[in-house]
Structures
1.
Amino acid sequence: MLMELTKMAGRLLALSARAVHARAIPVGACGVHDEVRTVIGNREIVGYGYNGQANYADRAEFPLPAIRWKEPTPDIAALREKEKGDWRKLSLEEKKALYRASFRQTFSEFKAPTGEWKSILGYTLFFTSLGLWLFIGMKLFVYNPVPESFGEENQRAQLRRILDLRVNPVFGLSSKWDYEKNDWKK
């Protein structure tokens, strides 16, 4: 019995070792990125990105896109070789060129206000005023006039009739009316 268990354990160990070794193949070698390459061209994949796909987006909450902004050119390739050395030897223009090859915008550029709130406010006010004009038009031309029973004199007469009939004397209006003093209870 013990011998069979050790054979089974050895077999499981060998299978798991093969499975781990099989997963060690690099993703790019499997041809997974072939479809992605048709979209991004020769741009270098430099990281995971914010969603695990090879795409570019300027995002403040995840500032490291998965691919570089521009495709490599001979000028950029020369600068990349030069950046592997001492950065103090790079000029400011070369540093900016390297940055612009990797990123489309700086933080201050993509976080700058766009003024989009103005159009949103304009549309909101336009549709609000349109709704008010529609309401006024409906009130004037579509709805029937208010019945006479909505007048103040008719409402007083209706209240007096409710009190005279003693409608709902336990919890309603009649319970709050003092019939001896002919006035509301205090």
2.
Amino acid sequence: MPLKLSIIWLPVLLFSCHLMADIPQCFRFTWIGAYENHSNVQSETCETRVGDFNEIPCSMPLVVTPDDTVPDVKALWQNQTEDREKFLCQMSPGYSCVKFSYIFKGGIQNITYMAAKVNTTNGCYTQTKENGMQVEACVCTSRVGLQPCNGSANNKPTLVMGWALCLIGSYQLLNKYRIL
């Protein structure tokens, strides 16, 4: 009898671990790069920032960092006290997470994180403009319950770790009740 219970309960526990995770998400905001007067960013919008250059992606909210360095999205994701939901969006079916970086003379000028419908596979693509500006677009597919992929280089080890922890927890629970 204990063997039958473990065969029944193990898939239920694994499925419940899967349901506890959120819908896949993407980061969604624009880091505007080095910016002299940080207090002025509150009055700006993507329309005022980009103007007539419609091909430049921008996604609200606009973000500055105290020392003008690239945002630490890992810290943002892990910080449960921060209102991180305003920096996230759901990855809808048919969409991918994208990170657009504008790079000039080796320095990152700005970055836009967003969800978008793209005609390409996962990976990074770079285009160099006539003025030397490089535009890098990195496309990825986020996984349920994990940090959005458009904020990290590789989240596959985290996915494996998440499933391993779920399996270990399920095993311990089943063993505690002597179902195994």
